[in-house]
Amino acid sequence: MAFYCYLLECADGTYYCGWTKDVERRVQTHNRGQGARYTRARRPVKLVYMEELENQSEAMRREHRLKQKSHEAKTLLIHQYEERIHEA
């Protein structure tokens, strides 16, 4: 079973990082105001980055590492991700 680490861009331009087994469902939960407290006041949110990991432990570790990055570093990661998506 795959797990995912993801970044959301909030309406105020900030990023939220999390992990899940179902990214689409989790984004919908955030946008309904039933997700993390952080995103409730910053809706709507949109998915801007995700990566698949092998297990929950790896997803949680990756989430922790991404949360340590600056806003600028996250923005660069998102741009690189978007370029890979468009190339595929």
UniProtKB/TrEMBL annotation:
Keyword terms: Endonuclease, Hydrolase, Nuclease
A Pfam family recorded for this sequence: GIY-YIG
Gene3D superfamilies, per database record: GIY-YIG endonuclease (3.40.1440.10)
Cited InterPro entries: GIY-YIG_endonuc, GIY-YIG_endonuc_sf, UPF0213_domain
Lineage top rank: taxon: Bacteria
Domain called GIY-YIG: residue spans: 1-77
A molecular function GO annotation: endonuclease activity
Similarity comment: Belongs to the UPF0213 family.
UniProt name for this protein: Putative endonuclease
